[in-house]
Amino acid sequence: MSTSTLTETAALLPAAEIERSYQVCRRCVMDTTDPDIRFDAAGTCHYCTDWLKRVERETAAGNPALSLSRLVERISRAGSGRDYDCVIGVSGGVDSTYTAWVVKKHGLRPLAVHLDNGWNSELAVDNIRGVLEKLKIDLHTHVVDWEEFRDLQRSFFRASVVNIEIPTDHAINAVLHHAAVKHKVKYIVTGGNIRCEGIYPRSWGWYNLDLRHLRAVHRRYGARRLKTLPQISLLQFGFNTVVRGIKTVPILNYLDYSKPAAMQFLEKELGWRPYGGKHYESIFTRFFQGHIQPRKFRVDKRRGHFASLVAGGDLDRQEALNELAGSPYPDPQMEADDLEFFLKKMAITQEEFDEWMKAPPQPHTAYLNNGWFFERAPALKRWARRIALGN
Hints:
Blueprint: H1 3-11, H2 15-19, H3 46-58, H4 68-78, E1 86-89, H5 94-105, E2 110-116, H6 122-135, E3 138-143, H7 146-159, H8 166-182, E4 187-190, H9 194-197, H10 211-221, H11 234-242, E5 247-250, H12 259-270, H13 283-297, H14 302-311, H15 317-324, H16 332-346, H17 350-358, H18 371-375, H19 378-388
Parallel strand pairs: 1-2, 1-4, 2-3, 4-5
Helix pairs in contact: 5-6, 5-12, 7-10, 13-16
């Protein structure tokens, strides 16, 4: 990275981060824009060091116990006699689309579930419909009540917290669990994977399963009752996991998964089309990650995504740094169009938006939460990880 780029980056940092001299990891691309980053004597950050350990422990590349054939056999056996043997979440993105192909290729009978939160791009809808038709996979789409959901999203904006995607992510988890319970399915198969998503600083977000937190934010700033939003409490999640035996399995960890190779395959074989950024199949996510987070919270989520790809050898480090020196948006006109669309759909004025952007960021802990469950119980974390891996 050039000296001029470093200077420009430092100019965007809060005072507390400027006092700490700017540093970027020598192995990946994580840097001191994350206040929690730590470096060893060689200038390597703890994120990619931990990531490599997780790859060895939690993916088939390093752990022979993670056998895809045995996993498929368990899923098939558990679903014997039922219409479906697993539930998969689909968004139109690379990982979830490749997951749909993997489960179908290995003879499983999935029900695809999609949450329509009102922000899908036309490309995402086309990708979902086209791929599932070719794979002959049934689709259940849950469409949210827009007025209710908009009120919830607006409440998270007013709360000034960094993870405004919690309403969507929580509802997705809830819909997947509800579908699994309804169809008596024991496995929820996801496209989440360490190779592409293993590096994610805590300062960038909060736990989307924290229903207490979601309700607390909405009580403070919302104006409508949450009558129809799909929800799942920790108690319900635990009951589904322990009593009903529902397991959530990131199946791509059982493969030698390469995102660039997956994209090429999907384009060639299934007519899938790329959308220009991770999770940019959603207009809301594109605007949130490409405009709001960099300006209000000094967070560029591409950095974590690129760091994982660089550490895994799927992306050249210098190429990643060059990308990070540019805008998260594919082009300025798209950013301007998305801003206009965002304001209209959220029913807020430019002045209201500007005022919110200037408001000081607030930690998620400023609102009621169940963070103690996620952060202060290592034994539960290890248990949850074993459950997720299907072991």
